[in-house]
Amino acid sequence: MNKLTADDLIYGYINGIFPMADADGTLYWYAPDPRAVIPIHTYKPAKSLRPILNRNQFEVRINAAFTDVMRACSLPRDVYDSVWISEEIIDAYSELHEMGLAHSVETYIDNRLVGGLYGVALGSAFFGESMFYREPNASKVAFHYLIEILRKQKFTLLDTQFINDNVRRYGAIEIPKADYLRQLRTALKHKTKFVTSSADTLLSDQL
To answer: In the 8-state DSSP scheme, what is residue 45?
Structure first.
């Protein structure tokens, strides 16, 4: 099989599939049924997160360290965690980032990267891939800013692929694959842009 490219990723996303690597690096394409999505306009930050947002405990940057975020996400969380982000995947998504279609939201303390997430934006759909943290709440703050971006830029679909306890805390729900594909087709018809300006102006006035 040829090496994974940015064009392969674009083709996959517009058709509702995405790649993951096995332990030996072999790539497989997935199309879960049901599919997990996070309704953009019903998300509310947890009460425990609001003081952290108000204190500006973390500096938030956008697209400042995309590949570093991917590499951090590729590390196993514990001895039982499987690794699915291979070097081939990192290279392909980095190519997509250079094309302006893959993005990262990062959190910093004292100029040190301590958390973040990355994903792909096509039309008005954002495909969330993975997140990590090295300090408590670092990834939660990154996700909060992601939602602010998606709302302000009028995104209509936030895909999170599989349901698990981590995405449930952000309000993820499962929908049938057929419903997801209908939402995806609609989202791809609506053009919007993932903001790349300073994150300072994105925090909602209503926390």
So the answer is: -
Closest CA to 203 of 38, 42, 37, 45: 45
Residue where the block lists tokens 């053009």: 191
H-only helix segments in the chain: 6-14, 50-55, 66-74, 87-98, 138-152, 165-168, 177-189
Q: Please, which pLDDT band fits residue 207 given cuts at 50, 70 and 90?
A: very low
51 contact partners, CB below 8 Å, separation of at least 6: none
Residues 6+ apart with CB under 8 A from 126: 119, 120, 146, 150, 155, 157, 158, 159, 194
- How is 135-192 classified by DSSP, letter by letter? STTHHHHHHHHHHHHHHHTT--EEEEES--HHHHTTT-EEE-HHHHHHHHHHHHHS--
Could you tell me if 133 and 139 are in contact, meaning their C-beta atoms sit under 8 angstroms apart? yes
Q: How far apart are the first and last CA of the chain?
A: 48
Q: Which two tokens stand for residue 118?
A: 């990355």
Question: Would you say 101 and 120 are in contact if contact means Cβ atoms under 8 Å apart?
Answer: yes
> Is pTM beyond 0.85 here?
yes
Report pLDDT digits (tens) over 140-163. Answer: 999 999 999 999 999 999 999 999
**How many angstroms separate the Cα of 156 from the Cα of each of 160, 178, 204?**
13, 17, 18
127 vs 30: CA distance, rounded Å:
13
